[in-house]
Amino acid sequence: EQQKLKRIRLNKAVTLDGTAIELHANIEVPEDVVKAKAAGATGIGLYRTEFLFMNRREMPDEEEQFIAYRKVAEAMKGLPVTIRTLDLGADKQMNPDTARSCTNPALGLRAIRLCLADPPIFHAQLRALLRASHYGNIKILVPMLSTLSELRQTKLMLERAKLSLRKQQIPFDEDIKLGGMIEVPAAALTAEAFAQQLDFLSIGTNDLIQYSLAIDRTDDSVSHLYNPLHPAVLQLVEMTIRAGEKLGKPVSVCGEMAGDPRLTKLLLGLGLRQFSMHSAQLLAVKRRILQTDVPRLGVLARKILNSGDSDKIEPLLDKLNLQ
Ligand code: PEP
Ligand code: MG
C-alpha cells in the first residue's frame, strides 16, 4: 500500500477532467521540510511558527526567527512557503507552567489579538519574516482574524516593519503577499470583505469547527460532537471558497479536513483547489484527486451542502466517494 502511494509522489495533482490542484504541506519546525518534499508537496501551506516559541523561557529574538524562516524558504527553492504569524494562546502556550489563566482561553487574548497587544513581539517577527523573504517565496498568513480593524492594524505594523528595513537598507520582497486565516465564523460570514483586503485566504477548519459548533477542541468530553460534516461548517467553508472565487483570490484549507481523504471529493465539489495538510496525508489525498472527475461531483456536493441534517450527510458522502 505504502509502495503504491509512493509511486504517485511525482505525479502532478490533476483530476480526471484536468483540474489542477495545489497540494501543500503543514510544518511545525524547519526540519519538517524534508518530509514535505519526500511526500511531493509543491509548497508549504502552513508553517506554524509558534513551535519556535513554545516550551522555553526566553522568546526567540528576530535573528533566531530569521534563521529559521530563511532555512525553510531556501530549502523549498522558490516554491511558496506560507508562514503564519504567532498563534500563541489557548491550546498553544509558550510556557504552560506560567500561562496566564483565564476562564475561556480559546476566546481570549490569542493569536493576532496577542500580537496586536504586544507590538514589540509582532514587530520582531514581521522583520524576521520580511528579511527571510529575500531568500525564497515567502507569504505571510495572519491567524484568528475576526474584524477588518485587526487586519488594518496588522497592515500598519507590516508597513512599519518594511519602513525600518528600508531605512537600514536590508533587502526583502517588496511584493510579499499577505493572507488571512478564516477560522472564526464571523470572518467566514464576511469573507468577501476580507478577500478584498488580502492576497489569499486559508480556512482553518480546526478552529472554525470549534467556534461554530461551540465545541472545545481540547475537551475530550465533547469530542464526539466535534463534527467537520455539520452543515453549518460546510456552509461556512463553501462561503469562503465562493468569496475567494468572486474576488479572484486563492483559497486553501489548512485544517485537518484538508488531510482527510474521505473529505477530498466533497471539498473539490465545493470548489476547493488548494489543500494544505500534514505530509503523511498528502499521497492518500493525491490519490483521491487523481481518481476524481470534478464536474460529476456538483449535484451531490450541493445536496450535502444544502442538507440541514448532519445524520443525512454521512450516507450522501459515501455515495459521493463512490463517484
Ligand atoms: C486550524 O485552526 O484549522 C488551523 C489550521 O490552525 P491550528 O490547528 O494551528 O489552530
Ligand atoms: Mg487555528
TrEMBL record:
Mg(2+) binds at E183, D207. Its EC number is 2.7.3.9. It catalyses: L-histidyl-[protein] + phosphoenolpyruvate = N(pros)-phospho-L-histidyl-[protein] + pyruvate. The keyword Metal-binding applies. GO terms for molecular function: kinase activity; metal ion binding; phosphoenolpyruvate-protein phosphotransferase activity. GO terms for cellular component: cytoplasm. The active site is at C254 (proton donor). Keywords: Cytoplasm, Kinase, Magnesium, Metal-binding, Phosphotransferase system, Pyruvate, Sugar transport, Transferase, Transport. Phosphoenolpyruvate binds at R48, R84, N206, D207, R217. It is an enzyme of class 2 (transferase). Its cofactor is Mg(2+). GO terms for biological process: phosphoenolpyruvate-dependent sugar phosphotransferase system. It is found in: Cytoplasm. It comes from the Bacteria. Residues 4-293 form the PEP-utilising enzyme C-terminal domain. General (non sugar-specific) component of the phosphoenolpyruvate-dependent sugar phosphotransferase system (sugar PTS). This major carbohydrate active-transport system catalyzes the phosphorylation of incoming sugar substrates concomitantly with their translocation across the cell membrane. Enzyme I transfers the phosphoryl group from phosphoenolpyruvate (PEP) to the phosphoryl carrier protein (HPr). Belongs to the PEP-utilizing enzyme family. This is Phosphoenolpyruvate-protein phosphotransferase. It comes from Pseudomethylobacillus aquaticus. The chain holds residues 260 to 582 of 582 of the full protein.
